[in-house]
Amino acid sequence: MKTLLTKVQYNDYEPGEFTDIAKRSYEETVTLINNFNWEEQRHNTPVKITGPSISVESEEGVLKLGTYYDSKFIIRWLTANNKRYDKIVPDLQTAFTYVHAFYNSGLSTVDMQRKSSMFVKNSFITKPFLYQRNLKRALLQIINGNTVLGLPFICTGIYFLIQTLGKKNAPLADYLPLLAPFLVGLIFTGINGIILLNQYNYERGKQLVISRGKDIFLYGVAGDLCKYQKTNIDHVEVLNSTHGKHLFSNNEICIIHFKDGNTMQTTNLLISQTTLHSKMPLIPFKYVNIRFFQNS
What we know:
The chain is built from six helices and 15 strands. It has helices spanning 26-35, 38-42, 92-103, 135-165, 179-202, 273-279; strands at 3-9, 19-25, 53-58, 61-67, 73-79, 84-89, 113-115, 130-132, 206-209, 216-221, 224-229, 233-240, 253-258, 263-267, 285-289.
């Protein structure tokens, strides 16, 4: 009995998020499709590639059966060479003929409509949703954080240097003003670097596996991840400074407060608060604005 990898996607899932992933025969896939609550899932759900659907994978690519307007269904086929074809069908019985052909490597594009395959692959391929510290992100934060604040000092130093070099036989004392702006920039860079290094070390070996549609998420050290539930979260406290653009404005700390009093802390070197919020849109996020310079 031939089996193919099948997977389910619900209306609140994000691109690449699937569940109930298993190898099934054609008959088992038909049962899976018949038992799927299509009407409930299609209610108030816009028609899009990522949505209520059941997908089947083979060497021919990925066949995705999803909801369409007026109680119809749509079959989307992303071929192995990344070409996409769509077919709107009136009911599931008609859809089964395409699923059966796909199982037997006999699916044809003759009566299917060619569609653009740009930016849609993530909606067909399963993503791991694994988040861990990222050196590239840390370096970008250093550059971003220091460029905005340090650029005026650097420009000032360059200006002094040009002015001094224009003088003939300028004494050494004339070069001393050059040190001040560069020294200030170096201090700021060092402070920001220490903060980011501390965050980078804190996230050493830690992993977070979280997606929008599933209530369960995993967090901990690689190889020893613990299960948590979003429904057990009371709120998320975000520590960040949004008071203008300065050295520390890119450093974020998210403290997840659970209903039992326990907490879990992450930084934006693991996952940004924006991304974390998108994974749990129903959880209250409380933003704590840390001001380094108070108004007089």
